[in-house]
Design a protein that fits this description.
single chain, 134 residues, alpha+beta, 6-stranded mixed sheet, 4 helices
Length: 134
């Protein structure tokens, strides 16, 4: 009987821990991405790219491979050295999320939109858009 009581009391505790872990994982998905954008680190940021993604930089849009998108971002960061990046809004569901952020780089302000999708075991960037702030 004691074993049944212990099990019944343990199950809600385990469920709360699993739920808290899932919330932290989904909440933190943009933390490393933000860090790499603020550093202008296209190499590390590309680790978050899907194998193919849509990338738009200053109204030039293309469907690119992971490597092509990395080169596009490297070129952007050479011309616009980041000073700071801040996520201003996030939303989405468990398997798909998006974030809006403000990048200050090269003396200009940019709006960055990031869409991520959960694919098998991790989140991957499906779409990245960089536009000048109006």
């Amino acid at each position: 009987m004691k074993q049944i009581v212990k099990t019944v009391l343990l199950i809600p505790t385990l469920l709360l821990c699993l739920n808290a872990g899932a919330q932290n994982q989904s909440y933190d998905v943009f933390v490393p991405i933000s860090k790499y954008i603020s550093q202008g680190n296209a190499e590390n940021l590309s680790a978050w790219f899907a194998d193919n993604l849509e990338i738009t930089v200053l109204s030039r849009s293309s469907n690119a491979s992971k490597n092509q998108a990395k080169q596009i971002l490297k070129s952007f960061f050479v011309d616009h050295t980041p000073r700071s990046f801040e996520i201003t809004h996030t939303a989405g569901k468990d398997n798909m999320k998006y974030a809006l952020g403000t990048l200050i780089a090269g003396g200009e302000r940019f709006v960055i939109t990031i869409f991520v999708n959960y694919d098998s075991d991790s989140y991957k960037i499906q779409q990245l858009k960089i536009d000048r702030e109006i």
